[in-house]
Design goal:
The structure is a single chain. This protein is α+β, with helices and mostly antiparallel strands. The chain has three domains: 197 residues, Arp2/3 complex 21 kDa subunit ARPC3 (Orthogonal Bundle); 152 residues, Beta-Lactamase, CATH 3.30.450.40; 160 residues, 2-Layer Sandwich (Alpha-Beta Plaits), CATH 3.30.70.270. It is 57% helix and 14% strand. It has 19 helices and 15 strands. It is elongated. About 1% of the residues have low confidence.
């Protein structure tokens, strides 16, 4: 069952309880409701609700225009009627749109906010000489300039305070302040025109002015939607450029998910990898952060993502009731709208993207077109990153063992030695490892068997190397381990553990010098030389040379199959 009540709702209710009920009690005891024409008032409420339901958006943010209705009501009937219109318009709007999970908290907060604004603005109105029912043109203009300024200023101040309490970044005053104030003051001529017309012509003026106003806002809404599409297309191009600058597949994937979530205000984003007919979750992003989610792999037709995989078609759901029965796995209670689409390359589905938000009816058909462009950028960027990574691996890795090669080892050793000399790390140890009598392995079992021994040994070394260290193939049967932060004493103990395990390990090879096809288990031993900085050297080449000297002069000449530290 959906969890409706949470801590945010509780605090919102407490704030509402402290502000709204006492305020209503005060107003009811001081204002005469018999003077209100309730039929007219409910028509005003209907216009206010329609204005909120179909807002004009600027820069993706809705403009606050409902005051074209509430200001005439305030001038004609007073603060009590204005509060009724505002509160019921907001309530009707919240009941018919948005997210049911946060509807209660949103109602309590919005109700308390607009009640406070109504009370403060009304007091400012009376303080500057305003009176209910006044008809003098310029005095009305003056007092409502003060009324609207106080309303906009206090509104922005309270929203900024709310964002600060919630510890979330607010760009309300920075990004929206001009549009907020412009829309607030821009609506005054319409609202005062409506007020004067109703006084001179009668209540029919509400329809005479209101219907054209709603038609105009509807046309502007269509224009703002077109503007939003153009803005999204521009954003898609910018995101595509950013994706192409990444040189690793992981960075491409992470940035793609972050940008798509931000662009479509999706609190939940999941990327599934398609492999061998199954979908496996590879990245999950919830409420602005990457998270670990336990998600069973999906077969074609299983769940929403599985259905997208099977039919190779995107899916859009407006609310939870539409998809909940099809969901087979992890689905947070707050999810409402869902958009899921396949991402293909060369006519083959490679991944499936799943987006969801806490709002209803959040995704539109044109979002699919924008996402299709973004997914094209994504697949191209992934392919480019894979090619770059492959070239980097070829330039840095040994083709046989997949360990780092000689060139990379030299560069890394220079870097680590620089850290030692700058005092950023205390010590640096190097192990030089050589297989004893490796030529005998090649001569007895063939070079292919020798390669198998090298590959197996590489896996053993890679398994043992610390997280901060690296291992590479120095050349032939020689390997080097670079161990930042490890003392010479600890390095010798570590080397002895490796030597002991290799000595006891059974290496499986397939002899190629005879007709024998069955595998053979053989044993090998290694000799290891250890050198340390700053104890033995202060230069990278000298440190490596000392490890090499300790290997041959210390371990090899002493009988092999042993560890030797460099001795000056």
């Amino acid at each position: 069952m959906m969890k409706i009540y949470n801590r945010t709702t509780l605090w919102a209710f407490i704030v509402w309880l402290v502000i709204v009920p006492p305020g209503l009690i005060y107003l009811l005891s001081n204002y005469n409701l018999h003077e209100i024409n309730w039929i007219h008032l409910f028509i005003y409420i209907a216009f206010g609700f329609i204005t909120l339901l179909y807002p004009i958006k600027k820069g993706g943010q809705p403009l606050f225009l409902v005051m074209w209705v509430t200001i005439p009501v305030f001038l004609k009937y007073g603060i009590m009627a204005e509060i009724i219109v505002m509160q019921l318009s907001v309530l009707a709007f919240l009941l018919t749109s948005g997210n049911t999970y946060t509807m209660l908290s949103r109602f309590f907060l919005n109700s308390a906010l607009f009640f406070t604004l109504s009370m403060i603005s009304a007091n400012v109105f009376h303080l500057v000489g305003g009176e209910i029912g006044m008809m003098e043109f310029w005095p009305v203009i003056l007092v409502f300039f003060c009324y609207q300024f106080s309303h906009s200023f206090i509104r922005d101040l309270l929203l900024k305070l709310y964002s600060y309490i919630k510890s979330t970044p607010s760009n309300y005053l920075s990004n929206k302040i001009l549009s907020d104030y412009a829309s607030g003051f821009g609506v005054i001529p319409v609202s005062l025109t409506l007020y004067f017309l109703t006084e001179y012509v009668g209540f029919g003026a509400v329809f005479l002015l209101g219907v054209p106003f709603l038609i105009m806002t509807y046309m502007l809404r269509i224009y703002s939607n077109t503007e939003e599409i153009n803005r999204n297309l521009q954003q898609a191009g910018e995101i595509g450029h950013q994706l192409s600058n990444n040189v690793t597949e992981k960075k491409v994937v992470d940035q793609f998910i972050e940008k798509v979530s931000e662009m479509f205000n999706a609190e939940y984003a999941y990327l599934f990898n398609h492999q061998d007919g199954w979908l496996e979750l590879v990245r999950s992003y919830e409420k602005g952060a990457f998270v670990e989610v336990i998600f069973n792999r999906l077969s074609p037709g299983q769940g929403i993502a599985g259905s997208v995989l099977m039919w190779n078609k995107p899916i859009i759901y407006s609310k939870r009731d539409e998809w909940e029965k099809d969901s087979k796995d992890y689905a947070p209670d707050q999810m409402q709208s869902v958009l899921c689409l396949p991402i293909s390359r060369d006519q083959n589905i490679e991944t499936v993207l799943f987006l969801s938000t806490q709002r209803r009816s959040a995704f539109k058909e044109y979002h699919l077109q924008i996402l299709d462009i973004l997914c094209s950028y994504f697949t191209v960027s992934v392919e480019k990153a894979r090619n770059v990574e492959e070239k980097v691996i070829k330039s840095e890795r040994c083709a046989l063992t997949k360990l780092y090669n000689f060139g990379f080892l030299e560069d890394r050793l220079e870097y680590e030695m620089k850290l030692v000399n700058e005092g950023l790390i205390d010590e640096l140890s190097v192990l030089m490892l050589d297989i004893d009598h490796f030529k005998a392995v090649n001569d007895t079992y063939g070079h292919q068997s020798g390669n198998e021994v090298l590959q197996t040994l590489a896996r053993i070394l890679k398994k043992h190397v610390p997280q901060t260290g690296i291992v590479g193939r120095y050349g032939g049967e020689e390997f080097v381990l670079i161990l930042p932060g490890m003392s010479k004493y600890d390095a010798k103990i570590f080397a002895e553990q490796i030597r002991s395990e290799i000595e006891s390990y059974a290496f499986q090879v397939y002899p190629s010098l005879n007709n024998q096809s069955a595998p053979v288990l053989i044993s090998i031993t290694v000799s290891i030389g250890v050198s340390n900085a700053p104890e033995d050297a202060d230069e990278a080449k000298v440190l490596l040379c000392n490890a090499d000297r300790s290997l041959y002069l210390g371990a090899k000449q002493a009988g092999r199959n042993r560890v030797a530290g460099y001795i000056k």
